[in-house]
């Protein structure tokens, strides 16, 4: 196992459990305790965790795993969700994409659609995510609009009043939201309040709102609210979604697609 893969696995375990012992981590990853101690020390230097005697704990009260460490989590589900979301977009539409691993997969699914291979433009994509803009900018048939703002290293998203200025002057056909939590009572949410504010603006500027979220995000709450569930037109999730949760979203007026 490479160091990057090992670090991803360690951080995922830590996020799930909140605390991790050296011996337990070594057993799970089938490496030596000395290797885990070294990994913990290096991750602590990057402020990715807090080192404790014999192990590590998550860094901060509301822990957010940076995007570069989240790409492998539920990859299959995210790709299926992304393909289904991409099919909801019509040629020529203006699409808003927030940052995140699932919306990055949506961008990739749009990029390979045969009916979007040409056009003037085939799609207009508005995003505050640097990585999404970078991937789509090489597609000449897509018009890419990148908001201004200050880059947030955890998610590669631009946030702040400069982004607000651009979004207040545009109109979207559809906004595709990546969220960390979606609950019937508490709505869609993100970890960071500035990120949530930009996502909220995208929703307000769109004719319809699609949430792309794997089943682990449903029924959860997070710190910063993006929008109430009433603002969501469609939820695309995976087939492992709890049936009662799906029913509650449908009763709230949300169209739910499971893939």
Q: What would a concise description of this structure say?
A:
The chain is of the alpha/beta class and about 260 residues long.
What's the arrangement of secondary structure elements?
Elements lengths: L2 H15 L1 E3 H8 L3 H13 L3 E4 L2 E4 L16 H12 L7 E4 L3 H11 L11 E5 L2 H7 L5 E5 L3 E3 L4 E3 L1 H7 L4 E7 L2 E3 L3 E4 L2 H12 L1 E7 L11 E4 L6 E4 L5 H9 L3 E4 L1
Parallel strand pairs: 4-5, 4-9, 5-6, 9-12, 12-14, 14-15
Antiparallel strand pairs: 1-3, 2-3, 7-8, 10-11, 11-13
Helix pairs in contact: 2-3, 4-5, 5-6
Fold and architecture overview:
The protein is of the alpha/beta class and 259 residues long. Helix content is 36%, strand content 25%. The chain is built from nine helices and 15 strands. The strands form four sheets. Strands 6-5-4-9-12-14-15 form a seven-stranded parallel beta sheet, sandwiched between helices. Strands 1-3-2 form a three-stranded antiparallel beta sheet. Strand 5, helix 6 and strand 6 form a beta-alpha-beta unit. The longest helix is centred in the N-terminal third of the chain and has 15 residues, at 3-17. It is globular. The model has no long low-confidence stretch (mean pLDDT 91).
């Amino acid at each position: 196992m490479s160091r990057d893969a090992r670090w991803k696995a360690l951080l995922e375990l830590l996020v799930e459990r909140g605390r991790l012992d050296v011996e337990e981590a070594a057993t799970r990853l089938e490496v030596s305790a000395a290797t885990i101690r070294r990994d913990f020390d290096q991750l602590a230097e990057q402020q990715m965790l807090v080192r404790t005697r014999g192990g590590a704990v998550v860094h901060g009260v509301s822990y957010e795993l940076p995007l570069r460490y989240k790409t492998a989590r539920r990859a299959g589900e995210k790709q299926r969700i992304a393909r289904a979301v991409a099919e909801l977009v019509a040629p020529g539409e203006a699409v808003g994409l927030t940052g995140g691993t699932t919306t990055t997969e949506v961008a990739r699914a749009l990029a390979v659609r045969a009916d979007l291979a040409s056009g003037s433009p085939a799609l207009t994509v508005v995003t505050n995510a640097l990585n999404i803009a970078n991937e789509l900018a090489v597609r000449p048939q897509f018009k890419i609009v990148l908001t201004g703002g200050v880059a947030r290293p955890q998610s590669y998203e631009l946030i702040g009043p400069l982004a607000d200025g651009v979004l207040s002057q545009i109109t979207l056909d559809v906004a595709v939201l990546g969220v960390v939590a979606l609950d019937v009572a508490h709505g869609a949410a993100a970890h960071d309040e500035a990120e949530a504010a930009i996502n909220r603006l995208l929703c307000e500027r769109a004719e319809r709102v699609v949430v792309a979220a794997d089943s682990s995000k449903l029924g959860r709450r997070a710190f910063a609210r993006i929008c109430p569930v009433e603002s969501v037109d469609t939820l695309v999730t995976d087939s492992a979604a709890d049936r009662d949760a799906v029913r509650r979203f449908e009763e709230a007026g949300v169209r739910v697609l499971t893939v």
